[in-house]
Amino acid sequence: MIKVHGLRKKFKDLIVLDGIDIEVKQGETVAIIGPSGSGKSTLLRCLNLLEKPDEGHIQIGDIMLNAKKYSRKEANELRRQTAMVFQHYNLFKNKTALQNIIEPLLVSKKMKYDEAKKVGEALIEQVGLAHKADNYPITLSGGQQQRIGIARALAVQSHAILLDEPTSSLDPELVGEVLQVIKQIAEKQTTMIIVTHEMDFAREVADKVIFMADGHIVEQGTPTAVLDHPQNPRTKRFLQQSISLPEYSLV
């Protein structure tokens, strides 16, 4: 589903990604963990060209792109393969919760309104917010806004969903409701890459965990292998220093 080879990105003299190779199978949930500044979010943003990588090849589905040279058409085709869920929701403040979900269907998919509305209503119910369909973002909690963001990402039916620390902006008591929605999506074998600092969540939901540090992939494997039996000293140090987070009910 997703293959990345030799991906490099720097900002001026700072190398943020230094030769990243990853492979994500269809239906797989991959969690990316690591310290701040390790390149996790930049990697996600390079996958849909929100950041322009300097070198490397990206393949998502049948679309392959050479980072050194590509056309606008190729860039648009690659972007259509993924949907992004951001840290800070990025909802349209002047549109209701339901309108936020159906907007990409109307604009990018050119779907008729009645059809788009039907899709949106099914998705807002899926994330447990049908009763908030007519509410504007300002009246929703952070957790509710993020759930609407996830529903919007699901609406476009892309090959994969990229989630950039989806709970980092939430108050602790709101984290569980968002993680629950993501867990339900993972159970439907939706291809997802999640940048997260929720270690217990990564252990329970991810098929693969990737540990990044200083722009490199240091270690990757099953959650048990990476989180419970890390082999690299850098991974061990990071996990030892990580604060024990409260356990959230994901039943």
TrEMBL record:
A Pfam short name: ABC_tran
Membrane topology: Peripheral membrane protein
UniProt xrefs under InterPro entries: AAA+_ATPase, ABC_ATPase_HisP-typ, ABC_transporter-like_ATP-bd, ABC_transporter-like_CS, MetN_ABC_transporter-like, P-loop_NTPase
PROSITE patterns membership: ABC_TRANSPORTER_1, ABC_TRANSPORTER_2
Lineage top rank: taxon: Bacteria
Domain (ABC transporter) ranges: 2-239
Location(s), subcellular: Cell membrane
SUPFAM superfamilies associated with the record: P-loop containing nucleoside triphosphate hydrolases (SSF52540)
The keyword ATP-binding is assigned to this record: yes
Keywords per UniProt: ATP-binding, Cell membrane, Membrane, Nucleotide-binding, Transport
Protein's UniProt name: Amino acid ABC transporter ATP-binding protein
Taxonomic source organism: Sporosarcina soli
Example of a GO MF term: ATP binding
Cell membrane recorded as keyword: yes
